[in-house]
Amino acid sequence: NQGQLFVQLKGKDQRPDIEKVLADLRKQLAGVAGIETYMQPVQNLRLGSRSSASAYQLVVQGLDTGLTDIWAQKMNDAMAADHANFADVTSDLQNNALQASLVVDRDKAAQLGIDTDTLRSALYGGFGTGQVSTIFGSA
After folding, report:
1. 3-state class percentages of the chain: helix first, strand second, coil last, to nearest 5
2. 109 domain residue, yes or no
3. 46-96 tens-digit pLDDT
4. Which helix (H) or strand (E) is 135 found in, with range?
5. What's the CA gap between 103 and 25, in Å, rounded?
6. How many angstroms separate the first and last alpha carbons of the chain?
7. What secondary structure letter does DSSP report for 130?
8. Range of the domain at 109
9. Is the pTM of this model over 0.70?
């Protein structure tokens, strides 16, 4: 499970510097069992549409998934260990999705009267990202 909490701090003249506030909160929340916290001050201008646990994002991409995962983890670990330069380092890698490959026997499909358009449509209906239906209930 994941959640977000937004807080409004008192004015600058009524509180310590934001970095001190964040450091104090990190220290206090580190003792709470079962949660991980990532704090960032709200920016006046935010570019990009993706929400994350940090103000900066590093994207690691590659053709070899196994090798990419290894190096992404090494980079994550190195940054997390560098407390002088980084705080609240996290990864949003979710690499536990199942994967399957499908090889279509076009001759057999044609014998059964199934063309590639019908097959594509059926697979998209089952596994695609399109909305299938909307269920309305009482409000």
Report:
1. 35, 0, 65
2. yes
3. 555 556 666 677 777 788 888 888 888 898 899 889 988 888 788 877 766
4. none
5. 53
6. 25
7. S
8. 98-129
9. no
Tokens representing 130? 């399109």
Q: Is residue 118 part of a domain?
A: yes
Kindly state whether residue 67 falls inside one of the protein's structural domains: no
Residue 115 falls inside a structural domain: yes
How far is it, in rounded angstroms, from Cα 14 to Cα 24?
16
Q: Please state the three-class secondary structure of 47-113 as a single string.
A: CCCCCCCCCCCCCCCCCCHHHHHHHHHHHHHHHHHCCCCCCCCCCCCCCCCCCCCCCCCHHHHHHCC
The structural domain count of the chain equals 1
**How much is the CA Rg of the chain, to the nearest whole Å?**
24
